[in-house]
Amino acid sequence: MKYKRILLKLSGESLMGARQYGIDNTQVLQYAQDIKAVAAQGVEIAIVVGGGNIFRGLSAEKSGMERAQADYMGMLATVINCMALQNALETLGVETRLQSAIKMEQICEPYIRRRAMTHLENGKIVIFGAGTGNPYFTTDTAASLRAIEMKADVVLKGTRVDGIYTADPEKDPTATRYDEISFQEVFDKKLNVMDMTAITLCQENKLPIIVFDMNKEGNFDKIAKGEPIGTLVK
Fold first, then answer.
1. Where is the Aspartate/glutamate/uridylate kinase domain (predicted)?
2. Residue 4's closest CA among 57, 48, 42?
3. Per the annotation, does 205 bind a ligand?
């Protein structure tokens, strides 16, 4: 395997599958099976999950809700998603630990960096919930931050598209996909990869990002082996 330790970022929307809202258990189980297959080959995996399938802080703010309050509500939504993914993994017999940046002792561990590192070293999958624990930061930023803290080799952003395009491929049929792109080009071209705070964190810490289609079965395994799937940002 090319990577020893991976940080996988899943959007909340990706857990919806074909649904318009909430969690599609079939989709979550497929992700869990893909994750299990990679973990079985000795790769250490940490995961950050978004919450947009349940609640989006930014959307709530636009409709008049106070931003910090809305963001905290979004953080709680991510924990629901994390619990669903943890359940799917444990159903498959994969040892998993869920850590939250907001304390919720009855359902998960608090985020403790050294404990998370030990879990990874012991072969457990660690899922990080509640973003960074702070309003005004996205789960993309949380993914970059946790990846750096965990000393991950790469951030893998699993989406519903197969990489980064020159424009939105669903709106522009002439859009072409990048195989590889620099952090600076992402900034200059204002490409919608992750938010700028997340990209800056990765750039400053020389942490590569790969954007790929997580919905295609086996893609996660191929990336872990170093196959050129998706778009590499470095």
1. 4-213
2. 42
3. no
